[in-house]
Amino acid sequence: MEIRPYISVFGCFLIHFGLGTFPTFGNLNPYLTSYLRNRVDGTVTYGKVSWWFPEKKSTVIGILTSGYAAAPLLMNYVQTFFVNPNNLAPASDGYFDDPDVLDAIPSVFLLMAGVHGCFLFVGLLLYSEPKSREVEKGLDNTVDIKEVTNENSPGPELVESKDLAVTPQEALKTKQFYLLVITAVCSFHSVTFVNTFYKVFGQSFIHDDTFLASVGSVSSAFHALSRGLIGVIQQKTSYKSTVLILFGMKTVLLFTLIASSTGGKAMFLIWVSVLYATFPICFVCIPAVNAEVFGMKYTVVIYGMILFMAGASSIVWPVIFTELIPILDGLECFV
To answer: What backbone torsions phi and psi does residue 150 show, to the nearest 5 degrees?
Structure first.
C-alpha cells in the first residue's frame, strides 16, 4: 500500500489546523472585547488533495477540513490558560476588568501566530500532489451541459464524467450554482453567529470561564469528527438528504438553545456541541457536490465564487443583529 497519499492528506489536515484561527474567536471574543472596552474605547461592545482519491471526494474533503474545525480543541485551552490562568469571572457588566487578564490579551495574538504558523509549515512540507492525475485526463475538452435528475444533487444537475469541465462562466448560467449559493448563505450566517457569540451567551448564566473554554473545545471536537463523518455519509447516501438532515437539526437546536439558560451547564454543553456538528454544510457537503456537478478542472474557482457570495451576504447580518440585540436582549437572536 502506497503511504504517500495518506501523508499528503495528513499534511492538508495540518494546513487546515494552522488556518483554524477563526473558530477560536468564539472563545477569544469576550477577552478581546474587554480589552478594547477597558484599554481602547469604553463604548465598545461585543481541493486539490482529493486528486489522490478521485472516487472518495466527500470523504477526503471531510477528513482534511476537520483540521480547521479541530484547531479550537487545542487553541481554546491555550488562549484561556495564557489570558486567564486563574479562571477569573468577568465583572457584573459582562466584561473582564482584571489588569493581568487585559495585559495578556495583546500578546496572545503572537502566541497564536507562532502555533498556527508551525502547523502550516509542517503541513506544507507533508503535502504533495499526485504525479499522475488520472482524474484530470480528458479534462481539456469541455462538454455541453446536460440536465438530468439525480438524487445526489440539489435538483437537476450536470452529468459527471471524466471529461466534465464546466467553466466558471458556464456555471453562472446554471440553476445548480445559485442553489448552492443559497444553501451556503443559509448555512454561513448561523455558523458565524454561533461561533462568535456562544461564549457571550453562556457568560450570561455560567460564571466559569474555564468551563466555557471547554465548551468551545468539546464543540470543536464534535465539529471535527462530524466533518469526516458527514463526508462518509454524503458519499454513501446523497448531498440532498445529508443537507436536509443537517439543516433540520440546526433549526431545532437554534430554536431551543435559549432554554439552556435554565437547563444549566450540561444542556448548554450538549446543545452547542451538537450545533457545531451541523456546521459542515459549507465546508464538506458543498465542495464535494461542487466537484461532482461542475467537474474537477475549475472546482476551486467555482467553489471560491460560491463562498465569496455567501461571505458577502454576511455584511448584512451584523447590521441586523446590531438592531435586534438591544430589542431582544441578545438571547432571542439565536432563534
So the answer is: -140, 125
CA angle 291, 166, 286 (to 5 degrees): 25
Q: Please say whether the beta carbons of 264 and 215 come within 8 A.
A: no
Q: Which amino acid is at 173?
A: K
Segments of the chain assigned E as strands: 147-148, 157-158
Could you give the C-alpha distances from 100 to 44, 68, 82, 110, 242, in angstroms and in order? Answer: 20, 30, 10, 17, 47
Q: What's the pLDDT at 204?
A: 86
- Using CA atoms, how far apart are residues 233 and 220, in angstroms rounded to an integer? 19
Alpha carbons 132 and 140: distance in angstroms, whole number: 15
Which one is predicted more confidently, 167 or 95?
A: 167
User: How large is the C-alpha radius of gyration of the chain?
Assistant: 21
Q: What is the largest CA-CA distance in the chain?
A: 65
pLDDT of residue 253: 93
Please list, residue by residue across 31-59, b when 16 or more beta carbons sit within 10 angstroms of its beta carbon and e when fewer do. bbbbbbbbeeeeeeebbebbbbbbebbbb
Closest by CA to 330, choosing from 201, 215, 203, 208, is 201
